C-alpha cells in the first residue's frame, strides 16, 4: 500500500536524495577492497598493468624427433635431440623433462593416492582395479610407462647422468647452461601404447581388426623454467594438464605404408607419402568452400581390408608450438578445406574412420573452419598453417594444430540431437584450445581455469555464432546455479591448483566461463569487455600468463575496477542469492484537504465495517435513536472529514510558500518505491529489477554491484515512477546466477506445485533418438551412402 510522506524541501534543494549511512553489520569493506597482497608484486618481468614487462623472458626448446610406430605390438620407439635455449637470467646446472607416460606406473602418485573402499558387491574388474590408475579408464592392464634407453650428449656421445622421479626426469649437464646459451642433448625411449583414456591412446576395432592411434605426450618433453615457478615439475597426476615451452619441431614419423597420418605442423614430404590423386585433391581443397575428400570412405574401407607392404615416413615441421601430437590409422577418411584467416592460409582438416559418418563428413571440417574464424575475432589471428580434428572414441583432447574428438553416430548412421551438438561443441572446444592454452600459453598444471574456463567462454560465443539456438551447455548464468547451490564441502574456489579441484567440470570450465559471460553482458558491457579480453590475448600470445596478468589486464584495458568480482567469483565459493524482501510505496503528501480528508474518510469507513456492524444491519431492526429522533444532536450528523474554510486557507498558504518547481513536484502524483534487497548468498552482484506497470508495459532498472560497498547484507534503493508498479522482479533475464528465484519477486508469486511422476521402471535407456524413429517410418532410400559428399 502507498504511504504518504511530507515534502521536506531542504533535502531536495540539496540535490536530491542523499546517500544513507550504512545500517546493520558493516562487512563490505573486505569485498570491495583491492586484491592487493593476494596478487604477486609487479616487477619488470610482469608489470602492474598485467602486461609482459621490459625484462620478460622465456625459455625455448627445439625438438628433432624420429619415431616409429609398431602396429603389431602397439609400441612407439623414438629418438630425439632437444636443443634447449636458456634465456633466463640464471645459469642452469641441470634440466627437467616430463615423462607423462609414467602416469601409468603401478607405483605412481596417481595410482597410489586414489581413495577407494570395499563395497558389499564388487565386480572382478572393480576388485582388480583397486590399485590401478583411475585415469586409465577401461584400458588393458599393463606397463605403458616410458623406457628410457639412452640420455647422451650427441656431440661427444657421452651418456648424461639422469634421475627419474615419477613423471619427471632430471638430467645433469656436463657444464651449466649460462644465460643466452643453448645446449643440445638426446634421449632414446620406447613405450607400449595404452588404450585411449581421454588424452591419448589407441582404439581397436574388433570387426575389421584395425587400430586408430591418437598419440600424445609420447616423447620426453621439457619442463617449463620460468620467472613464476623456477622449474615447473609438479608431478602429472592425470587431472592437472600440461605446462610447456615453445619451440620449433622437426618430426619424422614412420608408420605402416597404408596409414594416413595427421599431426601438429605442416607435412614436408607430401610428394613421397601421398598418391598423385591425393595431391590433386589437396590442390582442390585450397579453393573449396566445402571439405574435399582426400581419402574417401570407400578408399578407407578398402584399406581396412588390406595389409601394409612396407613403411612410410611422414615428415612434419612446426614452428613456435608448445607440443606435438599425431593420429594415424589405415581406417582414416581424410577431408580438407583451406580458409583465409586475415591473409594467412589455414588448411582445415579432419581424420575419421567410417564409424564417425555421416556426422563427421558433414560437420567436422566446417566446424574447424568456423572455430578458427570465430576465436580469431575474440583473441588473436590463428597463426598456424593447419588445423586437424580427429575422431576418437569419446571425450575431446587438444594439442597444437590437432585435436582428438568424440561424437559417434549409432552403427545404423542415426544419432541423437545430443550426439550431434555434443560433437560440434567438442570440436569447437578442442580446436578452440589452439588459442587457450596452445598460443596464450598458461600453466595448465597449476591453473585449469586459465585454459578451460577462458576456452569454454569463447566456445559459448562460437557456438551461438554457429547457430543462434545452439544448445550450449556451459556459460549461461542459470546453468551454474546447481553447482553454486552445492554443499560448501564440495566447493573450492576457481583459484585452486588443478589437481586439488573437486567437481572439475563445473569448477574449471563452467564457473569461469559463466563469470566471464556475466562480466561481458552485465558488469562491463560487450564493448569494454571484448577490448580488454582481446588485449589480454594479444599481450600474452606466445607467452605464459598467470592469473594476475589476466585480472590486471582486464582492469587495465577497460578502466573497470573488478577486484570485487575476482574476489567473489575466482577466490571465493559463495553463491549469488538476492532476496527482494519488500517494496514500500510512497507518495508525496500534497496537503490538499479535498484529497486527504476524502482518503481519511474512506479508510475510517473501511475500519468501521466490522462483522458485528454487518450483522447488526438486519439484526437491530430499529435503534433507539432511529425510533426517537429527539435523541439526536449535532454529533449525529457531524462529518469530521468535511473540508472546512480553515482547511482551505491553510492549504492556500502552503501552496503560496512553494516555488513553481516545488509546486510541480508536489502535484505530479509521482510514486516513490523503496526496494529492500538482501544479499543472502554473499556474492555481491549488480541489482537488476524489472517493474511491471499497471498499464501492461514494463521497464528495467540496473544498479551496479558497488551498491553493496557500504553494506554487503542489506541495501535500500528508491525508484520513482509516474506509473504505478504492480509487480517487481529481480534478475528478470537470469543474468547473475541467482540460486533462489522464488525470493526474487514482490509481491511474491503464488507458488507452483512441484510435480512428481508415477514411475514405471523400464530399466536403463539411452537418450531419445527421434532420427531413427523418423527413418523407420520412411520407405528405405536407394543409391544413398552414409558417407560424406563433396
Ligand atoms: Zn578443454
Automatic annotation (TrEMBL):
Family matches, as SUPFAM superfamilies: Metalloproteases ('zincins'), catalytic domain (SSF55486)
Entry keyword set: Signal
Location of region: Disordered: 741-790
Biased composition range(s): Polar residues: 744-764, 774-783
Signal found in the keyword field: yes
Organism field: Runella salmonicolor
Organism taxonomic ancestry: Bacteria, Pseudomonadati, Bacteroidota, Cytophagia, Cytophagales
Signal peptide: 1-19
Domain Peptidase M1 membrane alanine aminopeptidase residues, every copy: 413-569
Pfam families named in the record: Peptidase_M1 (PF01433)
UniProt-recorded name of the protein: M1 family metallopeptidase
Lineage: superkingdom: Bacteria
CDD domains to which the protein is assigned, alphabetical: M1_APN_like (cd09604)
Amino acid at each position: 500500500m502507498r504511504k504518504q510522506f511530507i515534502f521536506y524541501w531542504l533535502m531536495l534543494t540539496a540535490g536530491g536524495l542523499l546517500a544513507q549511512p550504512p545500517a546493520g553489520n558493516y562487512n563490505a569493506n573486505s569485498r570491495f577492497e583491492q586484491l592487493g597482497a593476494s596478487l604477486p608484486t609487479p616487477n619488470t618481468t610482469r608489470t602492474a598493468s598485467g602486461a609482459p614487462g621490459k625484462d620478460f623472458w622465456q625459455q625455448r626448446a627445439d625438438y628433432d624427433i624420429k619415431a616409429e610406430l609398431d602396429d603389431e605390438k602397439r609400441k612407439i620407439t623414438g629418438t630425439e635431440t632437444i636443443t634447449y635455449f636458456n634465456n633466463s637470467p640464471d645459469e642452469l646446472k641441470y634440466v627437467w623433462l616430463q615423462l607423462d607416460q609414467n602416469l601409468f606406473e603401478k607405483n605412481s602418485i596417481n595410482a597410489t593416492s586414489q581413495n577407494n573402499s570395499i563395497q558389499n558387491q564388487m565386480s572382478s574388474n572393480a576388485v582388480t582395479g583397486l590399485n590401478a590408475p583411475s585415469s586409465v579408464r577401461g584400458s588393458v592392464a599393463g606397463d605403458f610407462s616410458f623406457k628410457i634407453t639412452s640420455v647422451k650428449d650427441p656431440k661427444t656421445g657421452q651418456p648424461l647422468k639422469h634421475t627419474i622421479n615419477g613423471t619427471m626426469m632430471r638430467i645433469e649437464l656436463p657444464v651449466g647452461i649460462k644465460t643466452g646459451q643453448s645446449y643440445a642433448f638426446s634421449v632414446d625411449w620406447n613405450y607400449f601404447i595404452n588404450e585411449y583414456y581421454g588424452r591419448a591412446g589407441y582404439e581397436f576395432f574388433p570387426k575389421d581388426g584395425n587400430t586408430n592411434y591418437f598419440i600424445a605426450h609420447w616423447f620426453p618433453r621439457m619442463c617449463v623454467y620460468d620467472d613464476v615457478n623456477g622449474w615447473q615439475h609438479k608431478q602429472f597426476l592425470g587431472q592437472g594438464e600440461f605446462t610447456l615451452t615453445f619451440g620449433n619441431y622437426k618430426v619424422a614419423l614412420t608408420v605402416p605404408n597404408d596409414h594416413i597420418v595427421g599431426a601438429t605442423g605442416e607435412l614436408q614430404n607430401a610428394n613421397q607419402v601421398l598418391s598423385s590423386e591425393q595431391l590433386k585433391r589437396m590442390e582442390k581443397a585450397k579453393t573449396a568452400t566445402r571439405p574435399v575428400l582426400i581419402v574417401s570412405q570407400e578408399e578407407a574401407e578398402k584399406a581396412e581390408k588390406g595389409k601394409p607392404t612396407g613403411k612410410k615416413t611422414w615428415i612434419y615441421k612446426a614452428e613456435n608450438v608448445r607440443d606435438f601430437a599425431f593420429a594415424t590409422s589405415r581406417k582414416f577418411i581424410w577431408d580438407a578445406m583451406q580458409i583465409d584467416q586475415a591473409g594467412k592460409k589455414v588448411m582445415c582438416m579432419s581424420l575419421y574412420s567410417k564409424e564417425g559418418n555421416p556426422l563427421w563428413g558433414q560437420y567436422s571440417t566446417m566446424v574447424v573452419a568456423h572455430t578458427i574464424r570465430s576465436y580469431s575475432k575474440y583473441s588473436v589471428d590463428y597463426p598456424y598453417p593447419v588445423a586437424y580434428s580427429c575422431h576418437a572414441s569419446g571425450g575431446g583432447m587438444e594439442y597444437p594444430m590437432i585435436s582428438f574428438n568424440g561424437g559417434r553416430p549409432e552403427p545404423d548412421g542415426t544419432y541423437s540431437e545430443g550426439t550431434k551438438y555434443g560433437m560440434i561443441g567438442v570440436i569447437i572446444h578442442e580446436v578452440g584450445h589452439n588459442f587457450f592454452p596452445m598460443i596464450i600459453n598458461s600453466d595448465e598444471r597449476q591453473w585449469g581455469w586459465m585454459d578451460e574456463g577462458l576456452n569454454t567462454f569463447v566456445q559459448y560465443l562460437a557456438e551461438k555464432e554457429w547457430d543462434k539456438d545452439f544448445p550450449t551447455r556451459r556459460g549461461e548464468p542459470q546453468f551454474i546455479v546447481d553447482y553454486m547451490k552445492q554443499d560448501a564441502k564440495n566447493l573450492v574456489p576457481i583459484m585452486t591448483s588443478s589437481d586439488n579441484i573437486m567437481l572439475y567440470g563445473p569448477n574449471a570450465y563452467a564457473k569461469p566461463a559463466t563469470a566471464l559471460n556475466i562480466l561481458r553482458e552485465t558488469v562491463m558491457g560487450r564493448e569494454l569487455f571484448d577490448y580488454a579480453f582481446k588485449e589480454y590475448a594479444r599481450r600474452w600470445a606466445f607467452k605464459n600468463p598467470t592469473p594476475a596478468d589476466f585480472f590486471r589486464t582486464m582492469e587495465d584495458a577497460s578502466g573497470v575496477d573488478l577486484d570485487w568480482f575476482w574476489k567473489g567469483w575466482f577466490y571465493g565459493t559463495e553463491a549469488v542469492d538476492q532476496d527482494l524482501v519488500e517494496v514500500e510505496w510512497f507518495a508525496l503528501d500534497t496537503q490538499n484537504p479535498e484529497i486527504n480528508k476524502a482518503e481519511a474518510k474512506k479508510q475510517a469507513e473501511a475500519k468501521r465495517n466490522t462483522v458485528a456492524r454487518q450483522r447488526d444491519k438486519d439484526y437491530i431492526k430499529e435503534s433507539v435513536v432511529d425510533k426517537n429522533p429527539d435523541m439526536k444532536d449535532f454529533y449525529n450528523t457531524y462529518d469530521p472529514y468535511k473540508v472546512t474554510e480553515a482547511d482551505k486557507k491553510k492549504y492556500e498558504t502552503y501552496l503560496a510558500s512553494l516555488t513553481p518547481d516545488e509546486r510541480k513536484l508536489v502535484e505530479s502524483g509521482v510514486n516513490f518505491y523503496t526496494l529492500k534487497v538482501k544479499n543472502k548468498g554473499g556474492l555481491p552482484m549488480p541489482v537488476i529489477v524489472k517493474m511491471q506497470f499497471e498499464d501492461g508495459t514494463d521497464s528495467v532498472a540496473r544498479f551496479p554491484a558497488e551498491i553493496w560497498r557500504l553494506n554487503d547484507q542489506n541495501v535500500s534503493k528508491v525508484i520513482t515512477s509516474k506509473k504505478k508498479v504492480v509487480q517487481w522482479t529481480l534478475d528478470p533475464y537470469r543474468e547473475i546466477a541467482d540460486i533462489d528465484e522464488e525470493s526474487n519477486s514482490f509481491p511474491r508469486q503464488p507458488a507452483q506445485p512441484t510435480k512428481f511422476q508415477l514411475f514405471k521402471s523400464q530399466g536403463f535407456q539411452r537418450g531419445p533418438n527421434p532420427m531413427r524413429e523418423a527413418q523407420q517410418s520412411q520407405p528405405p532410400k536407394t543409391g544413398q551412402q552414409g558417407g560424406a559428399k563433396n
